[in-house]
């Protein structure tokens, strides 16, 4: 449990003091819990979970519970975006893991727009299932067809468009790093444009 709390705290870029303040517990208590020297009460654990912005169950789940996480098709988050394109997050949410696999379908002639750079250390892999995808990374554009794939360091602006008269479906495997913050828990990042 202590390693889980510490990992979530590091993922959010929080110091012991910052999390202690957000959770309304002492730094010494938080430090002892992270090192496994003290067993916290449910009240203290609930405060820590609130400070991290996660459900209490995430902190008390047994490690073996996380060895296999299944996300059924019916539970996938599909988002209809302005402009008529659709983005579906295929992967389960895994605490402390900043990875997402997303399937996107762009209708003919759709420009999904430009997306801001993510934190340094972020990466994206693209694989086109059908149609034509125009991928723009910084100021360089490339057209990808069915079966083509690409990689880019996602710490630059990037854009996705379908320049053709047929739908385009593509997949993005994204490792998105969260910038370190000084206030409160970090909000989960969702890769843009997918």
UniProtKB/TrEMBL annotation:
SUPFAM superfamilies: lambda repressor-like DNA-binding domains, RmlC-like cupins. One of its GO terms (molecular function) is DNA-binding transcription factor activity. It comes from the Bacteria. Keywords: DNA-binding. One of its GO terms (cellular component) is cytosol. Residues 5-59 form the HTH cro/C1-type domain. Gene3D superfamilies: Jelly Rolls, lambda repressor-like DNA-binding domains. It holds the Pfam family HTH_31. This is XRE family transcriptional regulator.
């Amino acid at each position: 449990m202590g390693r889980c709390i510490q990992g979530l705290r590091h993922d959010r870029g929080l110091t012991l003091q910052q999390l202690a303040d957000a959770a309304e517990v002492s730094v010494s208590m938080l430090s002892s819990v992270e090192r496994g020297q003290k067993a916290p009460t449910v009240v203290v654990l609930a405060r820590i979970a609130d400070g991290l912005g996660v459900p209490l169950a995430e902190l008390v789940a047994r490690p073996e519970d996380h060895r296999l996480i299944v996300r059924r098709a019916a539970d996938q988050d599909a988002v209809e975006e302005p402009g008529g394109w659709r983005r579906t997050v295929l992967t389960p949410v895994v605490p402390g893991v900043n990875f997402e696999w997303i399937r996107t379908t762009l209708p003919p002639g759709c420009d999904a727009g430009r997306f801001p750079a993510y934190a340094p250390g972020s990466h994206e892999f693209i694989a086109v299932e059908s149609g034509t995808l125009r991928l723009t990374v910084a100021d360089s554009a490339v057209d990808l067809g069915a079966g083509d794939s690409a990689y880019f360091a996602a710490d630059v602006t990037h854009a996705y468009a379908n320049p053709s008269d047929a739908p385009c479906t593509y997949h993005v495997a994204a490792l998105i790093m969260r910038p370190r913050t000084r206030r409160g828990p970090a909000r989960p990042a969702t890769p843009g444009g997918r």
